[in-house]
Amino acid sequence: MADPPGCCSTCATCLLCPYSCQWITAKKEKRKGLRTTKYDCTWFFFLFCVFLFTLVWLYFAVIILNDFHNFNEFIFRQRKLWLDWSLVLLIATAVLISYSSVLLILALCLQLCGQPLKLHWVHKILLFLTALVVAAAFTGLGIKWAEEWKSARISLQATGPFLHIGAVGGMTLLAWPLASFIYRTRSTGLKVVLLLVYCAAMIALYLAPLGITSPCIMEEEQLPPKPALVGHRGAPMLAPENTLMSLHKAVDCDVQVFETDVMVSADGIPFLMHDEELIRTTNVQAVFPERAALNSTAFNWTDLQQLNAGSWFLERRPFRTVQSLSPGDRKEAAKQRIPSLGQALEAAKQSNISIMFDLRPENHSDYQSFVNVTLEVILQSGIPLQQVLWLPDGFREDVKQQAPGVQHIYGRKRLENEMEPVLRVNLPYQDMSSEEIRQYRQDNISVNLYVVNQPWLFSVLWCSGVSSVTTNACQVLKEMKRPIWLLPSSTYFMIWIVVDCFSFLIIIWAFVLMK
């Protein structure tokens, strides 16, 4: 088989070297009786499948970045090792997708140049290992982080129209190597099968927008108001979480609610702390090494005040934004202490923002006394009770009797036969569909979803009509004046038709040109 015009022997050799690990060109192979066999085609098909498999994992890796800080915290609680595992994930994924992409491009170029697809055995082993690694990643995701499958479905509402255009473009480009292979192969049956599969795939892609739905396909005047921002433990990208500095940074981001977690010390002082242990967010291992593994509630308030609650933030850098802090912010972060609930309420009252909190640990034997002492601090603080959002479910009726002005927010959906109307709900963003959000909005039920960090996710929830979102990235979402994209249905329909028609013409041109 001679090299087609435009593919010189040097180019063919350069393609063969990395793909087949040999320097023999097609002319020499013809004399040796070498050509692409069915076995070689099978490996090419496997290569194509591995590429698609890895591409899908790349998509998942980008999507789960919204929740990856939770994964980092989980690993720390298990292994007491802090690392930004998102960097490991992205680097490993980039290596896998780059490797399979380069091999696929080499194979397609070799096919266009009329060269045999003799994949070297080293690449076969590496491709097999790539498939195993990605399969293991998906399996681990399904076992340990199953809610991310819901995140992926939500992400399609933000990316669906663009994924459709990209898929149509990619399959359209395949028309050139496909036409080259069909015109060169002698097997009529193989030609028919390939053409039928390709045509079926293209027809499915051309009609895919019929099944694509997104809340952001709407007219500009239909766009709901921008969701209010709730600072997750304050502004944890700009200051140590659950500190007064974090609260003040959240106020600077125009948040309307400071979300936190409350524990009660051994001597009955409610304080801000998320983890049951103090190891992650304080220097307890240095100050009280023999008591470091104890529950936070085992320490009295005097002991807690001896701990530094900010130095870990500068040392471990839980977010990349820590690197860009000003010298003044670094100095302030380094001297943060664990604040009491009373101090947080006073700061919230002065800043005129609401405070929402969970009371931990729920399974503690003295939980009722925790509720009572927390209510006592709230009532003594002088903060307007309508600025307090009560999240704990335990002893909620007692709270309603002792502090009737406190606003109650529920961590569940409303029930069919609700005795008392639910006015506020606080749920993971994966647990509510766009249709449910719209229905709650029509029924005047305030919906807060957590934790929303990425602009694409904030855009989808904005278009859906959510009331507020809890976020780590208040400084990012604050700057968003509108969703990332908003398309009228007529405009999207026009884009759909133009893309499909343009793709069809290019495919016809490719087959005519290659003939």
Automatic annotation (TrEMBL):
<feature type="transmembrane region" description="Helical">
    <location>
        <begin position="192"/>
        <end position="212"/>
    </location>
</feature>
<keyword id="KW-0378">Hydrolase</keyword>
<dbReference type="Pfam" id="PF03009">
    <property type="entry name" value="GDPD"/>
</dbReference>
<feature type="transmembrane region" description="Helical">
    <location>
        <begin position="492"/>
        <end position="514"/>
    </location>
</feature>
<keyword id="KW-1133">Transmembrane helix</keyword>
<dbReference type="GO" id="GO:0006629">
    <property type="term" value="P:lipid metabolic process"/>
</dbReference>
<dbReference type="InterPro" id="IPR030395">
    <property type="entry name" value="GP_PDE_dom"/>
</dbReference>
<keyword id="KW-0812">Transmembrane</keyword>
<feature type="transmembrane region" description="Helical">
    <location>
        <begin position="41"/>
        <end position="65"/>
    </location>
</feature>
<keyword id="KW-0472">Membrane</keyword>
<protein>
    <submittedName>
        <fullName>GDPD2 inositolphosphodiesterase</fullName>
    </submittedName>
</protein>
<dbReference type="GO" id="GO:0005886">
    <property type="term" value="C:plasma membrane"/>
</dbReference>
<feature type="domain" description="GP-PDE">
    <location>
        <begin position="227"/>
        <end position="481"/>
    </location>
</feature>
<feature type="transmembrane region" description="Helical">
    <location>
        <begin position="125"/>
        <end position="143"/>
    </location>
</feature>
<dbReference type="GO" id="GO:0008889">
    <property type="term" value="F:glycerophosphodiester phosphodiesterase activity"/>
</dbReference>
<keyword id="KW-0325">Glycoprotein</keyword>
<comment type="similarity">
    <text>Belongs to the glycerophosphoryl diester phosphodiesterase family.</text>
</comment>
<feature type="transmembrane region" description="Helical">
    <location>
        <begin position="163"/>
        <end position="183"/>
    </location>
</feature>
<feature type="transmembrane region" description="Helical">
    <location>
        <begin position="85"/>
        <end position="113"/>
    </location>
</feature>
<dbReference type="InterPro" id="IPR017946">
    <property type="entry name" value="PLC-like_Pdiesterase_TIM-brl"/>
</dbReference>
